[in-house]
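PROTEIN–LIGAND DATA SHEET

This sheet pairs a single protein chain with one bound small molecule, zinc ion, given as SMILES. Inputs appear in the order they were entered. The predicted three-dimensional arrangement of chain and ligand is reported afterwards as a token string under its own label.
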Amino acid sequence: MQLHERILELSLSRSFFFPANEPYNPSAGFYEYGPVGVLIKHRIEELWRNTFTKSDGFYEVETSIVTPEPILIASGHVGSFADPVIECQKCKTRIRADTLVEEVHLSKHGERWDGKLESLDRIVEEQKIGCPRCKGELGKTFMFNLMFKTGIGGEQSPAYNRPETAQGIFTAFPRLYKNHGQKLPMAIGQVGRSFRNEISPRQGLVRMREFTQMELEYFFDPGDTKYPGFQEIANEKIKLKVNGQVIAATAGETVEKKYSPNEIMSYFLVRQWEFYRKIGINEEKMHLRVLDLAEVPHYSKGNIDMEIETSFGWIETIGNAYRTDYDLSSHAKQSGKDMSVFFNERKLVPHVVEVSMGVDRLFLALLEHCYREKTEGKDWEWFDFPPVIAPYQVAVFPLMKKDGLAEKAREITEMLRNSGLDVTYRESGSIGRRYARADEIGVPYALTIDHDTLNDNTITIRYRNDGKQERIAIHEIEKTIRENVKKGRVTL
Ligand SMILES: [Zn+2]
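PREDICTION REPORTED AS:
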């Protein structure tokens, strides 16, 4: 069994995630987070806020999902956010034409699609490619826009569910600039749902039609691409993939050797590298790929993607892009409103470096990287989540229900919950079984309340990774847990 198949099974049974609308023969590409998964997802988002907005004094907004058409004309999505599609004449199945042609024909010759619809039609005809479902004849390829269309108050005002959270930040920028100091640089982040109507999504959380993004737009004066305090991180090392070769480089070198367009992007590369390591992504299975000029949009002055290795192969999980003034200038043109600012005694349109991260793919990679098989000491599969993203920081178990142990354990649970910790409580089943259940969802510490607790006010704390235990006083529990979480300590 492939790792992702096992992860899917565990996700379904342990409430990490599951397909949406299960009783209704669900459509592919929609997943829901269960009670355990949603806690981890929220921790990832909170850690992102701390790392990418709060720590640098940046701002966060929450803008509309339903977006009027003119905005997405300006951003280019109405015109070109599309995939080539082919329809079976017989069973009417729609298929991604480029994927089909690459899988059936091109990849056998080590080739990729050249981007022309005619080439797809020609190859389908020459190679007699039929419908993968019913072998029926395929029609002509056409471009299919990937946005979910709707109308505001009716069809006369077309709109779409946003394909990215970024556009709401661009349209809010003039007001935010005015309200928050009228100075550059200025950075604005957003966490929220975006939509992409994939033709035939596969690979679970890797290709979703509705997904969560964490995006940051850093607005700056194009005459000043220095990052304040860059020297402090200039010697931090990251791994880059340049022209197919993976190399180690310091942040400073990424700027000197022009792998990155400027200090600003290099600064964020270092931050995302740290962020990924902190939440439990295996450093051996990640790199930042510098895109070739042929791969980047015409307005871009540099793109670097974070890629992570999973059992689906290497997947892109972060896009870093130097978008210049493309977005603000396009919105100025489309709306007729001035999007420039007055800064350092001149009028200018700020440039933007964007850091765009997906939560769901990252979540999936995290499950794979933290998954641990049964070993001699542990007869169950478990997750080695760093305490900072574990669904619960601590589990509380009375050794048995009787003799007042359950009452004492509930009292301790309430005390810890009131102090702001996330606690899971369980009082039935053997203690070994309860430890196993906690390990299986990656809870780093378990507390046991026994008869001694009632006499001397101490409890046993058990560490997830080595199963070792120590005795601590009840009044020290909160402090001990918080220190352990901070240090990432999961063994005695
Ligand atoms: Zn068919």
